[in-house]
Amino acid sequence: MDADHVEFVEEAAIRSTVSAVFESLNALLTALLPEARVEHIGSTSIPGAITKGDLDICVLVSQGAFAEADHVLSEQFARNVGSHQSATLSSFVDNSLPLPVGIQLVALGGNEDFFLQWRDLLRSSPEVLKQYELLKRHWHGRSHEGYRRAKSTFIEQMLKAPNAAG
Fold it and tell me: Using CA atoms, how far apart are residues 117 and 95, in angstroms rounded to an integer?
C-alpha cells in the first residue's frame, strides 16, 4: 500500500516497540519541559485496539507556557505541517525512530484539550471502542484523507455525546 492509503495492525503486535519508544521520548520530553504533563494517547494506548502503527504523545502545558514549549519542541522535532496548528495546539513528528511518532503540544483548557478525554472514553467504553474499530476496519486499505475526515467527525460526535467521559 502507498502512503495515500491507511492500514491498521493489532496494537499487541507492536506493544513492546511502542513502550520502548514512549519511555525514551517521555524522558526526553520531561527533561525539555519539566513542567509539562506527558501522556501516551492514540490507539497504541488502548490495549487490544487496532492502530496505524504509530505512537501518539500529548504534551500538556499551561496556556502561559505554550509559546515557549512550542519553541523548545520546534528545535527538537519537525513540525507536522499537514496537521491543524493554533494558539493552543502544535503538532510535531519524528520519523527517525522504529515507528512514526506524532507529538501534540496542547495548552490546558484550550480548544484542542480533548486528547486525554478521548483516550479515556475509549478505555472506559467498550461500545465506543467497538464503533471506532468498525470505522477503522471500513477504511483499511482506503484513502488516508477520507479516513482522517471520518475519524474527526466520529470523535467530535462521541465527545459531544451525553455519556462521554470528562
Answer: 26
